[in-house]
Amino acid sequence: MALKPIRRSKLRAWLGVRYYRFRRYTEWWLSDDKVARARSRNLLPHVIAEHRSPLLRQLKDVDMWLQHNKITNLKLAVSRIDSLILQPGETFSFWRLVGRPSRRKGYVDGMILHYGKFKHGVGGGLCQLTNLLYWMALHSPLEIRERHRHSYDVFPDSGRTQPFGSGATCSYNYLDLKLYNPGDEPVQLHVFLDDENLVGELRAASPSLHRYEVYEREHQITREYWGGHIRHNLIYRRIYNLNGELIEDSYVTENHALMMYEPLLEAGDASKCE
């Protein structure tokens, strides 16, 4: 997989986005998915998965005002999904719930990764939320029906606490995150911001019967014929019962990303679109 960057004209890119958005709208119209929409202020009693990520990070060559604007965007998106109940057989769709970010709705310019570079755009920074939701889903019984990997590896690994490629990018509306509840009990999303972090919980009526471990295999960096470096790995998940016995060890996904820094560079931050 070469992943050699393809430079497209602005017109080609504009038309491409409109085409994929139209195709997604058509899919929504024809889909028979039962999309979760009901919310409850009463939180289910048991936390079955949780995660948090810092709201502000000093990223190389990224102005901090984009980080602060991101917080505004996250608050608006969180308000659309917090306390959502996924009943058995229902699907969570990030964009069908959050809707299209716009200035009219209060969204502001935040950081967007575009062909491996930074730019600012309305609603930028929301992939920190999809990253968090995806990571929690990997540690729960929820099934991941749609997830899109980051195509570019922008920041070196200093401070990384999760395997490379364990996030989920998003772009309205054609790059969605969809989670499905295959169980026989509801699962509730509880997402909020505190003073320093974006915080997420998956809650249920009963305690979790399993422990989940997400890890990578076959991590490698390849030098391509055209001069760039591509980073690859496979993501797997182990599931243990309450006695610590391994009951499943299964493949989740594979990742390929064009590296935007020298492979041996150590300085920097490992965040992805945060």
Structural notes for this entry:
By secondary structure, the chain is of the alpha+beta class. Helices cover 20% and strands 33% of the residues. It has helices at residues 10-30, 64-81, 94-98, 127-138, and strands at 46-54, 85-86, 91-93, 109-114, 117-122, 143-146, 152-153, 178-180, 187-193, 197-204, 210-223, 229-241, 246-259. The strands form four sheets. The chain has a four-stranded antiparallel β-sheet. A four-stranded mixed β-sheet has the order 7-13-12-11, with no helix packed on it. The chain has a three-stranded antiparallel β-sheet with strand order 3-8-6. A hairpin with a 4-residue loop joins β12 and β13. The two termini are 27 Å apart. Residues 266-272 have low confidence and may be disordered.
Short summary:
This protein has helices spanning 10-30, 64-81, 94-98, 127-138, and strands at 46-54, 85-86, 91-93, 109-114, 117-122, 143-146, 152-153, 178-180, 187-193, 197-204, 210-223, 229-241, 246-259. The chain has 274 residues and is of the alpha+beta class.
